């Protein structure tokens, strides 16, 4: 590689080639690790292209990964533009996955992002088997549980009823709500999965993204919130005082 290329990735190389507090007990520094993540054989799936998903996609691309996939079922709404920095006003109405993939490919040379516009359940299990890791940035507990079910169902067992390591796909789950956030790594049948610790998630969601309400409402609650937030002000633009006078 050229000197310019080495300088671009010097910080990533330091993480991979030297021991440090960020590495787990099983981590072994090796100069070959950087070449490995730059290989087409290492495929990473990013689930969700919202506020957190845009950040994760950018970080993975700038960390040297060259073969990324992105799946999201939403289209871009005006309310997304204040925090989802991969989108612009001209992108409103377009699929988030497609626009995010185009943006990253333009800005990070050598990185290829394959977009998938649709639901998790639209993809067969064979689709998920190709990935070395799945990174999740969803805003729905139900979608997280579905993804957790997919990852757990892919695990195969040997004759001793032990999980075959190559069939275990790590799931990195992240989420934000207000000033709170979390990040955890799930290795099926080695660590507690998302279903095992479902009580850690709030049972009631405080509000819904406007892009979901406007373009892909999929729950009765979405329809109610759409009527309350978007339709009601159009029907009664001056509030309850108008209703009283009538």
TrEMBL record:
The protein's enzyme class: ligase
Active site residues per record: 211 (glycyl thioester intermediate)
GO biological process: protein neddylation
Domain (THIF-type NAD/FAD binding fold) ranges: 42-214
Keyword Nucleotide-binding in record: yes
Pfam family name, one: ThiF
Catalysed transformations (reactions): ATP + [NEDD8 protein] + [E1 NEDD8-activating enzyme]-L-cysteine = AMP + diphosphate + [E1 NEDD8-activating enzyme]-S-[NEDD8 protein]-yl-L-cysteine
GO cellular component: cytoplasm; nucleus
Enzyme Commission number: 6.2.1.64
Record keywords: ATP-binding, Ligase, Nucleotide-binding, Ubl conjugation pathway
Gene3D superfamilies in alphabetical order: NAD(P)-binding Rossmann-like Domain
One MF term in the entry's GO annotations: ATP binding
Family named by the database record: Belongs to the ubiquitin-activating E1 family. UBA3 subfamily.
Function, in words: Catalytic subunit of the dimeric E1 enzyme, which activates NEDD8.
Protein's name in the database: NEDD8-activating enzyme E1 catalytic subunit
Organism: Macrostomum lignano
């Amino acid at each position: 590689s050229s000197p310019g290329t080495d300088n671009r990735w010097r910080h990533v190389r330091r993480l991979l080639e030297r021991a440090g507090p960020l590495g787990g007990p099983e981590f072994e520094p090796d100069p070959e690790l950087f070449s490995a993540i730059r290989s087409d054989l290492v495929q990473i799936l990013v689930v969700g292209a919202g506020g957190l998903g845009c950040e994760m996609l950018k970080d993975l691309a700038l960390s040297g990964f060259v073969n990324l996939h992105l799946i999201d079922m939403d289209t871009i709404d005006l309310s997304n533009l204040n925090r989802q920095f991969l989108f612009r006003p001209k992108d409103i109405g377009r699929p988030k996955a497609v626009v995010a993939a185009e943006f990253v490919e333009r800005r990070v040379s050598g990185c290829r992002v394959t977009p998938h516009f649709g639901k998790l359940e639209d993809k067969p299990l064979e689709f998920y088997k190709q990935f070395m890791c799945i990174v999740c940035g969803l805003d729905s507990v139900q979608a997280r549980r579905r993804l957790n079910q997919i990852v757990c169902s892919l695990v195969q067992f040997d004759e001793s009823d032990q999980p075959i390591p190559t069939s275990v796909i790590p799931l990195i789950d992240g989420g934000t709500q207000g000033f709170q956030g979390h990040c955890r790594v799930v290795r099926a049948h080695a660590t507690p999965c998302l279903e095992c610790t479902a009580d850690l998630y709030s049972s009631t969601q405080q509000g819904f993204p406007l892009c979901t309400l406007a373009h892909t409402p999929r729950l009765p609650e979405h329809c109610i919130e759409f009527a309350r937030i978007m339709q009601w002000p159009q029907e009664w633009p001056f509030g309850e005082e108008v209703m009283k006078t009538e």
